[in-house]
Amino acid sequence: MSCQKRENLIRYNPDVNYMVVFDISQLSEQNPWWIDKKNILNDFKLSTLDKLKFQWDPNIRHYIKLDDDVIYTIRGPRQVGKTTLIKMIIKDLLLYKNIKPENIFFWSSERNDSKELNQVIQTYFDWRLDSKNERKYIFIDEICSVKNWPHEIIYFANKGSLKNCSLILTGSHSMDIKHSTELMPGRRGGRDDEPLDKILLPMKFSEFVNLLWPEFKNKLFDSEFASKKDRKKKIFELFEGKISKDIQNIMIFRKQLDALFEIYLLTGGIPSIINEYKTNSKISTKLFNVYLTSIIGDLRRYNYKEHYFKQLIKETYNVLSNPISWNSFTKNTEVKSHNTVQDYVTALEELFVANISYRCSIHDKRIHTFMKKIYLQDPFIFHALHGWSHGKKDYYTNAKANLLNLEMKSKLIEGVVYNHLCRLSFSLNPRDLFDPKDTVCYYKDKNKKEVDFVLIHDDNYLPFEVKYQATINSSDFFAFKSFNKGIMITKGDLGNYRNYVKIPVSIFLLLI
What is the pTM assigned to this prediction? Predict the structure, then answer.
């Protein structure tokens, strides 16, 4: 390496009072396939995955195309598998697409500042200078840890270094990545109809069923359940009062699906939690703490106070599924500013912990933001935060108690349905600037009759009500009157009532 190039790798760090030098040997520690491509098989993340009985292959892996100059982002909560997903992609590139190992570069940036990130990337480009016409595959993990990281990516884009490069950047903080990539218009490449900002969430119920009961997927091959397009079609048919034969036929498996749904309400869609529960018939306090620590750690990183957070979370469980204002939180917590409450709840949104639903009007086609509902994204996180905020000693015992409390269980199920409707809304119109608050809301008429959820699609308002109870009465459908259509999501009933349809929650979630 020339003296000039070596000088470019040196930075003085005043905090430690010595020169920090990056060279290719340091980079190679995170890229062992440069020595032998089969070393990817010894990767810690992939080795851990191989030991699991139930191995999740996220669908978004198949929607990432690395044949063009492109900058993808993968957002999602911590500990759900973003790094493992990247290593799976690298394994495919090495072993199945026979990409030259030196053209694949991975870097975990959790301990770097922006200047160090710049030097790391420059070191790699200098090393591969003689192969600049060969496509490079660059993976930067947890880039949100680097303050002002977009400026470094823009720097390399502006000087042409990203030509013949496919980049994937991951992060756990939604707004950081979402807003930062907005600073890079015209520099991200990709195809016109392709969202470049991918979101890796815990698996939805249909994925959960396929993972734990793979034989069930084979039973669907003779029906139209196997195709996403056909499943969406069936949902829209329900609003016409039509229950397809395929849905009726699936009812013969309802007991098995309900049993799986009970497990899903405990473990959520997080692979490590699912595997521990299926292996040990319980979830350890240690594993609960892994996820709690990651959430609290991220909040601390952004200067949020833990005791405020705990009080607000505890109050959230008191108002779950009920319309509230931010001011209402100031009455039972030490947080006395509604602006501060909003900041904390927004932080939970950005960390993929919570969702917010606003009230919509079908008369003036507006969404009103004053009164809103809060839902927690994943059942396991629901139980973990409940146990922590309420000072429970045994989180697993507390989670089981939650599921034996019908009121608490009903609120949890309502949150699961909301989360799935948000996913459905995105799949109907996938785009980088998607915000579920724009398309999934709740409704209340002038007589204060409320509909749990309304999905807005192509100017159509599609109402859903969740009634997880033993019997459904005609009065339960009254709130649908303003729409003259509606889907009632039930505990076990399937059938029609006038223009409306009722369908078991475990069957309905399979359609999404």
Answer: 0.90
